[in-house]
Amino acid sequence: MAPALLLVSAALASFILAFSTGVEFVRFTSLRPLLGGISETGGPVARQGWMDVLHDHSVLASLARNLGLLLLFVGQHSLMATETVKAWMSRYFGVLQRSLYVACTALALQLVMRYWEPVPSGPVLWEAQAEPWVTWVPLLCFVLHVISWLLIFSILLVFDYAELMGLKQVYYHVLGLGEPLALKSPRALRLFSHLRHPVCVELLTVLWVVPTMGTDRLLLALLLTLYLGLAHGLDQQDLRYLRTQLQRKLHLLSRPQEGEAE
After folding, report:
1. pLDDT per residue of the chain (262 residues) written in tens, 0 to 9
2. Distances in Å between the alpha carbon of 179 and those of 89, 170, 173, 224?
3. CA distance 121 to 143
4. What pTM, to 2 d.p., does this model score?
5. Where are the domains of the chain?
6. Which of 49, 90, 158, 192 shows a CA-CA span of 20 to 30 A to 242?
């Protein structure tokens, strides 16, 4: 009983960490740029030109720090997803392999968000300043961000969220049901082998659709866009499977309950 409790506790701790990190990521990528802009002071900031940045060591230091944080996250997320590392973790951590991967990813993302340095005095790629754009552009961005996050949450319903977070593996292990992937269809296994980021389009919308594209935000959007593009490997068969699963989920949700049918 004790090992089972330890396994369940570790998996739940990883899940809670990942969930809280996801909430913080929404604030970091959406609420801060939409409600606070790139300036932390709340007042007007004199911004430099693009060429001036090359001579400003404080801006370059901040960008280098942010780049290092992003590379740390990308390196951890990619390295721990390789078959060699997954086999090593499975050998030493067993059924907690997925939970450990999720926890390390959450910790790496926490480092990015905690130590990210805004560059309020840096140049901007675009910025809504004059009316009516200063009113309507942030509102439009807010609507698109809300839609994107709702789509992200709905897409996660199509997938086995408990399995993505490592909870289902521990649950099956404790009950002696084996490996959850062994019970999945060949089409599902094919999808999981191709898919690293099921919400690429929505995340790209969140990254790029902002009223002010400052220097640090541009760095964040460019690097994560490149990473998402390289890691995204869906094809037509995967998309057909996703569409079938979504229709199945929607049918189950829309089916009347027994009490309502009467």
Report:
1. 448 888 889 999 999 999 999 999 999 999 988 886 544 334 455 677 777 777 778 889 999 999 999 999 999 988 998 889 989 998 989 889 999 999 999 999 999 999 999 988 888 888 888 788 888 999 999 999 999 999 888 777 766 778 778 888 888 888 777 666 555 656 555 555 555 555 677 888 999 999 999 999 999 999 999 988 776 555 555 556 556 666 666 666 666 654 544 4
2. 16, 9, 7, 32
3. 28
4. 0.78
5. 2-35+53-252
6. 90
